[in-house]
Amino acid sequence: MTQLQGIRAKVARAREHLLQLDEEIGTYLDLEPITLVRQIQPDGETSAIAVQVVTPPPVLLSLLVGEIVHQLRSAVDHIAYGLVLAAGNTPTRRTSFPVCISQPNQLTVAGGVSSEAQIRVEEVQPYRQGDPTAHPLYVLNELWNADKHRNLHLTALMLTNTQVFLSPPGGSSLVGGQFQRRAVGDNGVIGVFRFAHGEIDPGMEITGMGRSFLALGEPGPWPNDYPVALLLEELFNYVSDEMLPRFETLLAG
Hints:
This protein is 39% helix and 21% strand. The chain contains five helices and seven strands; from the N terminus they run αββαααβββββα.
């Protein structure tokens, strides 16, 4: 297998994991892991409905996220390895694709690459962008480090067009207050609807509607209210549609 074939195989494997992740997320959300719970407020003037996760995301989802991140970041490092070989040099243990959010005194690829390859490596560096920490190469690198050294915490969120309805015995519906979004805490609460005018009648039926998806609770250069599947798809597209085409003509084999 040539270097380029190996890189393409890793990118293809990441795509397979992306498809599996999408299926597993759908299976998880079909379990209806979110419920609505009445909360008693100490002020006696405000009632609240908590949006609570009763079934946390399965570990398999975090494993799949890690697999996707690993394959993509590994493919990028294999590009660096191939560039060193193409230059007629010998890669070292330190050969990897550099990712810099600030301009270094000298940007190098361990082992040495051609002048054309060096220019292209510099062109894709996050520090050359308006917001380096939002650059997909930096986000990918940080996700990779989180998966290696910490944990990719997934949290279920209900964010889009979210409403709560209280149905009194008479049959009409009362629409809930503004949704306050946040990541899952220790008690599994991801948001609260607050209502003025005293306590909520226990006899009222509580229903909710909205769009549920999974986001990353792990802190990093990514929004905690952004679908993780969409984030990973964007990183995949960057590696497959921008990184690989930029370097494939320079790779050995």
